[in-house]
From TrEMBL:
Keywords: Coiled coil, Metal-binding, Zinc, Zinc-finger. It holds the Pfam family zf-BED. This is BED-type domain-containing protein. InterPro entries: Znf_BED, Znf_C2H2_sf. The keyword Metal-binding applies. It comes from the Eukaryota. PROSITE patterns: ZF_BED (PS50808). The lineage of its organism: Eukaryota, Metazoa, Ecdysozoa, Arthropoda, Hexapoda. It comes from Arctia plantaginis. The keyword Nucleotide-binding does not apply.
Length: 224
């Protein structure tokens, strides 16, 4: 069953109940005699759909306002009700005057409605441009933030590299100092060994001299 109300383009009725499911988000809503609750859901959750429903309903109202069928009937009933004793010519003239006024009012209504539609379209275009500009600005800001982060990372990496080089240099200096200390230690041990050898050699020489002196002394003793 096709509904004349544009709201039903976005809702599906649940059986014979007073409930309907939104075609856009699958949420279930109840309604009684009107679709106001369903329309409120579109306004809160689906703005584009709500605007399309408003536009469709506005066009339907405008079509009803501009419809020739019933317009003259309403005007005729109104004129006759206002002046039931008027002649046929007076009634006809009154109907023509009221019809012209009604036509002018309808044209003004149509013009006003078209103006509002144009304003709405312009507003949507401006909003779209604004969103695009904001999106571009966000992209630019994101690129700048990315470049800033990359520069900070480069600086940190450079600092880390410099620290690593400094630590490497300090380690090399420490190794050199350690090697020098080891070398000095070996030199001292070598000198100590040399001193020990010299000391033994001196003691040996002293013993030899003592032995020679004893021999000399024994040789110089008088014979008995």
């Amino acid at each position: 069953m096709r509904h004349s109300n544009a709201v039903w383009e976005y809702f599906e009725k649940v059986g014979d109940t007073k409930k309907a499911i939104c075609r856009l988000c699958d949420e279930e809503y109840s309604f009684i005699s009107t679709t106001g609750n369903l329309k409120s859901h579109l306004k809160k959750k689906h703005e584009d759909a709500y605007l399309e429903v408003e536009e469709s309903q506005g066009q339907a109202r405008l079509a009803n306002e501009l419809s020739d069928d019933g317009k003259e009937r309403v005007i005729y009933e109104y004129v006759v009700a206002q002046s039931p004793t008027s002649s046929v010519d007076e009634t006809a003239n009154s109907i023509k005057t009221a019809t012209r006024k009604r036509s002018r009012d309808s044209k003004l209504l149509a013009s006003e409605y078209q103006r509002k539609i144009s304003q709405h379209a312009v507003g949507k275009a401006k909003a779209k441009r604004l969103i695009e500009e904001l999106t571009e600005e966000k992209i630019c800001v994101a690129h700048l933030q990315k470049e800033l982060i990359e520069k900070e990372m480069e600086e940190k990496n450079l600092k880390i590299t410099l620290l690593q080089e400094e630590m490497k240099h300090k380690k090399e200096m420490y190794d050199l100092e350690k090697q020098e200390i080891e070398h000095r230690k070996k030199e001292m041990e070598h000198k100590k060994q040399m001193n020990e050898l010299e000391k033994r050699e001196m003691l040996l020489k002293i013993e030899v001299l003592k032995a020679n002196l004893r021999k000399i002394n024994e040789t110089d003793l008088p014979l008995k």
